[in-house]
């Protein structure tokens, strides 16, 4: 996946600047962001604070770790089933 040139904190700052009196078009043009990207950011980070970003990163890391644990256990289970079948 391509890494964004903006960090999550910068994205939240850009979205907060639109909540003021500034027009969306001006903010997008200033930062060089397309309308599709802006609205994708708004759906993902809209209404989020910096503490929310850290929490989201922590949850994503925990989710990644749990998926890896599940994959390891599934592989181990399949290997054990193969061993049992070969003995019988």
State the major sheet: none
User: If you compute it from the alpha carbons, what radius of gyration comes out, rounded to the nearest whole angstrom?
Assistant: 22 Å
Count every beta strand, where a strand is a DSSP E run of 2 or more residues. 0
Overall geometry: elongated
The poorly predicted ranges are none
* Alpha plus pi helix count: 4
User: Percent helix among the residues?
Assistant: over 70%
Secondary-structure element sequence?
Answer: HHHH
Structural class: mainly alpha
Whole-Å distance between the termini? 45 Å
| Amount of beta strand | under 5%
Rounded mean pLDDT score: 88
What can you tell me about this protein's structure?
Helix content is 78%, strand content 0%. The protein has 88 residues and is mainly alpha-helical. Helix 1 packs across helix 3. The chain is elongated, with a radius of gyration of 22 Å. The relative contact order is 0.09.
Blueprint (SSEs and pairs):
Blueprint: H1 8-19, H2 24-31, H3 35-45, H4 50-87
Helix pairs in contact: 1-3
Notable characteristics:
88 residues; mainly alpha; 78% helix; Homeodomain-like_sf; Transposase; Transposase_8
Describe what is shown at a glance.
With 88 residues, the protein is mostly helical. The chain has helices spanning 8-19, 24-31, 35-45, 50-87.
